[in-house]
Amino acid sequence: MPVWLQTALLLTLSNLFMTFAWYGHLKFHNKPLWIAIFASWGIAFFEYLIMVPANRIGFSELNVSQLKIMQEVITLAVFVPFSVWFLQQPLKLDYLWAGLCLLGAVYFIFRS
């Protein structure tokens, strides 16, 4: 499997954990803050277990700017369905415009 694909798959998985750690507690806003904090830390631990190897694998062939832009694209691709499905937020055209801006970033970072 190519390094860029291994990296993208691992970053996608880690981003699922990250998104739940950062935003999942918002669905349960009536719970005490300390529960949200400890639950988020617990989830983030698993995110780091996947993200650190993903970045190390990716860095063998990609530069740090390429890794960062890849992460940002994956973040948007994971966050939009999460916010619509899990948090019941409306799907907005702004996500499309943000995605197009990120595609521009991908072009400029990966063109060399």
UniProtKB/TrEMBL annotation:
<dbReference type="Pfam" id="PF04342">
    <property type="entry name" value="DMT_6"/>
</dbReference>
<feature type="transmembrane region" description="Helical">
    <location>
        <begin position="31"/>
        <end position="49"/>
    </location>
</feature>
<feature type="transmembrane region" description="Helical">
    <location>
        <begin position="69"/>
        <end position="87"/>
    </location>
</feature>
<keyword id="KW-0812">Transmembrane</keyword>
<keyword id="KW-0472">Membrane</keyword>
<keyword id="KW-1133">Transmembrane helix</keyword>
<dbReference type="InterPro" id="IPR007437">
    <property type="entry name" value="DUF486"/>
</dbReference>
<protein>
    <recommendedName>
        <fullName>DMT family protein</fullName>
    </recommendedName>
</protein>
<feature type="transmembrane region" description="Helical">
    <location>
        <begin position="93"/>
        <end position="110"/>
    </location>
</feature>
